[in-house]
Task: structure prediction
Amino acid sequence: MRALTIMGHDALTELIDHPVRRRLRAVTLTNTDASPAEIRALGDGARLAEIQWRVSPLEPEVLAALATWPVLERFAAMSVRRLPASIAEALTAPPFRERLTRIDLRGDEDRTKEVAPILARAPFRSLTELTLVSLGIDCAGAEALARSQGMKRLVRLNLALNSIATKGLRAIATSAELGRLRHLDLAFNSRIGDGLKVLADPTHLPALERLIASYVPLSDAARKKLTTRFGKNLIS
Result:
């Protein structure tokens, strides 16, 4: 067994004492009231490389406990209400900024547009996948990511359900730091509109293979230009 979903506190305490825990590589916590001490115990002596956190609230103390997991590489927080900026700050500190290859943060009711600029300031060494969905990220946040040297290894970037407009997209499209990007998701960023056609130019994000732009309003002319570059890999 390599992955397990835990629902409820009783299931968590049972897993902590079960030998299968040491063989797991990924775990999802759902509706589980886990203390920092229990999170540390879950990772103690284990080879857990991935956690999906589906519990609200998410507190910085949880990140401190996860920092003790020796091989954690992938962190996801799904549908977390009131996602605090302090969580993004914690992810930029050691050991996360050295080890994490994937960060996936998805908001719910309240939005925290500060998350993108905070992550952009971090000198991530291994980050290849970044998902920041429904966090109210605006053009300033997109521009911060585009300038970030910590993003230079990214191959996948998901910024769906945010508030990015043409100015922010142009910063991403012309970014020297995002030259390795192969997959870009801008779905539901309706303010971009025909500004999306900047990505029809193959010199912009030259490695880009797949563009998701569902619910971004496009004229027929803009869609035609984008289809010329991406073909069936344009999802709109």
User: Anything to note?
Assistant: Residues 105-236 form a domain with the Leucine-rich repeat, LRR (right-handed beta-alpha superhelix) fold (CATH 3.80.10.10). DSSP finds nine helices and ten strands in the chain.
